[in-house]
Structure formats: structure tokens, C-alpha cells
Design goal:
heterodimer, A: about 450 residues, 2 domains, four-stranded antiparallel β-sheet, 15 strands, about 35% helix, B: alpha+beta, OB fold (Dihydrolipoamide Acetyltransferase, E2P), six-stranded antiparallel β-sheet, 5 helices, about 30% strand
């Protein structure tokens, strides 16, 4: 299909109809002092060949780093078939089309994605995805306040074991809607939320956020936290890593009644790290809350001939209909990344996902064993970990990370500024992508970088 | 022309109010409103025991094309909610002044009730609006 939106003649015709001389005249009403006619700092156009050369030089300057950083985005092996299929013409679109029902293939894919996410998290409903994990948490907080009919409170407990970047984004998005996100401190020995740190039963709040595994990679007592929240009339928002769910209990099975809303970052499911994005957020919930869930939702139905078909459903609360009273005014889905994630999950299947999760788990434990033998390195927290763990050091983490970077190793995430109470500490991660040699190489480099201090 | 029972009071946002024998008020949306909304697919009724202010959104009526708020005509406490609407929202389309009622509320005072329109005034208001 030729994609020519409008020809010179079309443009001329439209301008003549409007009585305008040129396209610039359309912008007449913008005061000249507000217009930026030239962008400073943007160089002149160069040819494709020149830009390709320049970009290659820049990429080479970055070098190849062996990556041991997690902290919210994870390096996983992505089977070549995932993006080979995703970028086929039939799938290759960034967006749910406006005339959605005309694209049955796209809708069916989103429907399959929703089914997979609902099953993975143990929930009944999934939306078609959101921007990323952090904004998915913000939307979950807003949703919890709407959905909790027992409480009129706009307070949400957000423990400090929740990813600090998520807490910051959720705070920025929800503060203008008068939500109060209140921190809960954690136990510095276990790296988890102690039940006695939670407010007394009289305290009124709409929900508590529980991240599992938490930002430190340690496992929270999700059952006790969930039951406690429900006993005081609060909802539970679970933040989870989808890969971990192949091994850990799904949030739908936390405590007696399970979590109410689940969200998280979908990047581990077949999306490359690519300098921080684009990623996608996922969100699932209980059927009882579906009308408060933001975002698009694809349903399966039958047409007049009883043939199966897919439709966008429950749209009456979306912004194109309900305007300012919509469930969300930042409503989109990450169509292309959801396509990749759906293909990734289809190719791996439940067993493949479990093998990835087990390999991550094994590698982290090999890594921890290796680094704990080094003088001046110890695990910050006891208990179970998944994916990643915090290490306590005798010297500033920034110095160690710099020394590792000189050996082409991204050695971890510096925790000192985010969590001053932990002293010199950093978060390290090992996924299935690391071999025994990689781990040995890391431990050796860490030992010598500490020795050189 | 939609039905406007003469024994009810009305708001400009198309709610109706019936004074019950015990002094509580039954509230619903008018026949005109249900016609304008079209076939309802969901009705979210208020929580029993909730304290409402006059003009506060207390319920949501959702059709395939729109979701609209229902506003409490008076200030008071919700005594009863028509939970049957959750399963059978069509009751509201079929019988807006009967089985389609939304909530029963105990008003704080009579003052707000007196400020509402009677059937004649509501009829005139609808003509003016159309």
C-alpha cells in the first residue's frame, strides 16, 4: 500500500479552501515571541551514510559492558524469533488502531496477552498494558482509592522496600490528585517490611503497596501483609516481576484473599534494555474492581453468525467518553512491546519461563557465594532472595563501581544515596545470561578493585 | 414525551425523590434521563451508611456509550441501596420510578427537599432544555 497522506495538490486545495497562502499561516495566532524558529544546538542535516558512521563511533565508545545491574530493568536472553515475528508487517504497529475492531488480529493478540498476564499474576482481569512499571504503580494507587469503597481515605502506604524510582513517579503523578503516599520503614537486618512497623488498626488508608521480590531482591511476608491489610479494610497493590512469578506464588494467592490489584514492569518479558525504554507496564485486578481499572480492555464475543470476535470493551469510563472523570487521562497501551512479550511468553511457555527463573535464581546464589568470600564484602540482608541482592562494602560503592567499570563491568546499583541507612552498599543482579566464568570474572574484578583501594 | 409522576420531586440533574411514610427519601433517575442514556449495562449504587452532601456524586449509571454520575438531591445518610441493579441494570430502563430506584436516604433536614422542583416545574424545565 502506498502511504502518501496528501500530495502537493491536496495541500494546495486545502489551503485554497481555507483562504490561506501557506501552511505557516495556520500558526498565525501564536504570538511571534512564543515561537522558536530555529533550534540551537541541533546541527545541520547530514546524510544517512554520515550519520551511520557517527552513530557507530559513538556506540564503539560505549564499549561492551558485562552487566550485573538489575534494580528494575533486567537483562534476559531474548530468543531471536521474538523480534523476528514481532516486526513482521502483520504485527508491526505501535498502537491500538483507532478503528480497533477492524484489526481483529491486533485485538486477538492483546486478548491473549491479557489472558497470560491474568494467569501469571493469579488475577481475573488484565488491561492491555500501560506505559511502564512506575506509571502502572501510580495508576494502581489512583485505582485503589476509587475501588476501596470501605474507606474514603486518599492515603496509601508505600513501604521503602518498593523501588525508589517507582515511589518518586507515583508521588509525582498522584500528588495533584491529592493522594498521600506514606512511607513505611523496613528492618535493616532482613531488608523487609516488619509487621510491627505498620500503623495501628485505627489508621485509615485506602491501600498498601507490597513489592515482591522487593527492591533489594528479598522476599516479603506477603501473606501476613495481605491479611493484615484486609483486616484493616485496606486493599493490597502487588508490584511483581513477571519472571519471578514462574517460581513464586502469584499475588492472587497472597494471604487468605489474595492481592486486589497487581502491577509491574513488563520489560523482562522479551523487551531489550535499550538505555531505559520503551518498556511497558502491566496491570491486573480482581473482577470486582474492573470498572475502576484504567486503560484499554479487549474482550471476546460472538457476532451475529456466532463467530468469535474481539472488541474493545468497558470503554464508557475511558477519557474519550468520560473526559475529566475518566479512570485515567494518561491512557494508552504499549502495543508493540506487548506483542513482543506475548510472543516471548508463547515461545517459552510455562516451563520455559520457570527454567529462566530457576537459572536466575541459581546464578544469583553462585554470585553471592563467590563475592561473600571476598574480604570487605557481605550480604546486607539474610533471608531468601530472587534475582538480586544488596551487598555491604567497607568502602564507598561509587569507588568500587568506578573501578569495575574500568574493567568493562557494570557492577551494580549504588544504594548509598537512596538508602543512607545501609551505609556503603550496592545492589547486584545475575540473570540466566551469566555463565560460571562471568561470575568468576566478576568476583575476581570485585576482589581486586577492593584490594586496590 | 417521558413520564413525570405528580407525587415526586425533581432535580435539574434529572434525579427524582419520593418521600416515604417513615420520612426517608427514595431517589432514582427520571424516565427522561434513562431514555437519554439508552440501554444501561451497569449501575454502581452507593454504599449503605455513606454520608452524602447535596449535589455530591453518589452513583454511576453506565450505558454502552456513556457513564454518568447520579447526584444526591439532599444531604444525609444512605439507608438502603438497590443492589439488584448490579445484576439487572435494565430494571432502570424499564421502570425508572419503581424497580429502578437507586437509593433510600435519610435527609439531614427538610430544607433541601423544599428547594426541589415539582412535576409541573420539571416538565417545564425539560421543555426549556429541549
Amino acid at each position: 500500500m502506498a502511504f502518501i497522506p496528501h500530495t502537493e495538490a491536496d495541500v494546495r486545495g486545502m489551503l485554497d479552501k481555507l483562504g490561506l497562502r501557506e501552511i505557516e499561516d495556520l500558526f498565525d495566532e501564536i504570538p511571534p515571541e512564543l515561537r522558536i524558529r530555529e533550534l540551537s544546538g541541533v546541527p545541520e542535516a547530514v546524510s544517512e551514510m554520515e550519520i551511520a558512521r557517527l552513530m557507530q563511533q559513538r556506540a564503539e565508545a560505549d564499549g561492551y559492558m558485562m552487566n550485573f545491574v538489575g534494580a528494575g530493568a533486567y537483562e534476559h536472553h531474548i530468543p531471536a524469533a521474538v523480534w523476528e515475528i514481532t516486526t513482521r508487517g502483520e504485527f508491526y504497529s505501535a498502537y491500538t488502531p483507532y478503528q480497533a475492531e477492524a484489526s481483529q488480529g491486533t485485538l486477538q493478540l492483546i486478548y491473549e496477552y491479557q489472558s497470560m498476564m491474568a494467569s501469571l499474576t493469579g488475577m481475573e482481569v488484565s488491561n492491555a498494558s500501560l506505559y511502564d512499571g512506575a506509571s502502572a504503580l501510580a495508576e494502581s494507587c489512583l485505582m485503589a482509592v476509587r475501588a476501596n469503597r470501605k474507606s474514603k481515605s486518599r492515603r496509601i502506604l508505600v513501604p521503602r522496600t518498593v523501588n525508589p524510582m517507582y515511589r518518586e513517579v507515583a508521588g509525582a503523578i498522584t500528588s495533584n490528585q491529592a493522594l498521600q503516599l506514606e512511607p513505611v520503614s523496613f528492618d535493616v537486618e532482613s531488608g523487609t517490611i516488619p509487621l510491627d512497623a505498620l500503623p495501628s488498626e485505627e489508621a485509615d488508608f485506602a491501600a498498601i503497596v507490597v513489592q515482591q521480590p522487593n527492591f533489594f531482591g528479598t522476599l516479603e511476608d506477603v501473606h501476613a501483609l495481605t491479611d493484615w491489610a484486609h483486616s484493616v479494610g485496606a486493599l493490597v497493590i502487588g508490584v511483581v516481576n513477571p519472571i519471578s512469578l514462574a517460581l513464586l506464588e502469584p499475588p492472587g494467592q497472597w494471604g487468605d484473599k489474595g492481592a486486589d490489584i497487581v502491577c509491574g514492569e513488563g520489560q523482562p518479558l522479551g523487551v531489550p534494555l535499550s538505555s531505559g525504554g520503551p518498556y511497558f507496564g502491566f496491570m491486573t485486578c480482581r473482577q470486582a474492581h474492573v470498572r475502576q481499572m484504567p486503560g484499554r480492555l479487549v474482550g471476546r464475543t460472538e457476532d451475529l453468525d456466532h463467530l468469535p470476535g474481539y472488541v474493545l470493551t468497558l470503554q464508557a469510563r475511558e477519557q474519550h467518553i468520560r473526559r475529566s472523570k475518566a479512570t485515567s487521562n494518561i491512557c494508552t497501551n504499549q502495543g508493540l512491546l506487548v506483542t513482543a512479550a506475548t510472543i516471548y511468553m508463547s515461545l517459552l511457555g510455562a516451563e520455559g519461563l520457570e527454567r529462566v527463573a530457576c537459572a536466575c535464581n541459581d546464578n544469583l546464589h553462585k554470585l553471592l557465594q563467590a563475592v561473600e568470600e571476598i574480604d570487605g564484602v557481605e550480604r546486607a540482608f539474610g533471608g531468601h532472595h530472587f534475582h538480586e541482592a544488596a551487598l555491604r562494602l567497607l568502602v564507598p560503592a561509587s569507588e568500587v563501581l568506578e573501578a569495575l567499570a574500568e574493567r568493562d563491568i557494570l557492577g551494580g546499583c549504588d544504594l548509598s544515596e537512596l538508602y543512607p541507612e545501609l551505609g556503603h552498599s550496592m545492589l547486584v543482579c545475575a540473570t540466566e545470561t551469566k555463565t560460571a566464568e562471568d561470575i568468576e570474572h566478576y568476583a575476581g574484578a570485585l576482589a581486586s578493585s577492593l584490594g586496590s583501594n | 414525551m417521558s413520564e413525570i409522576p405528580s407525587d415526586l420531586k425533581f432535580t435539574k440533574s434529572h434525579e427524582w425523590v419520593r418521600v416515604e411514610d417513615d420520612g426517608s427519601l427514595t431517589v432514582g433517575v427520571t424516565d427522561h434521563a434513562q431514555e437519554a442514556l439508552g440501554d444501561l449495562v451497569f449501575v454502581e449504587v452507593p454504599e449503605v451508611g455513606a454520608t452524602l452532601k447535596a449535589g455530591e456524586a453518589c452513583a454511576v449509571v453506565e450505558s454502552v456509550k456513556a457513564a454518568s454520575d447520579v447526584y444526591s438531591p439532599v444531604s444525609g445518610e444512605v439507608q438502603e441501596a438497590n443492589e439488584a441493579l448490579a445484576e439487572q441494570p435494565e430494571r432502570l430502563n424499564e421502570d425508572a420510578y419503581g424497580e429502578g430506584w437507586i437509593m433510600r436516604i435519610q435527609a439531614e433536614s427538610d430544607a433541601e427537599l423544599e428547594g426541589l422542583m415539582d412535576a409541573e416545574a420539571y416538565g417545564a424545565f425539560l421543555e426549556q432544555e429541549s
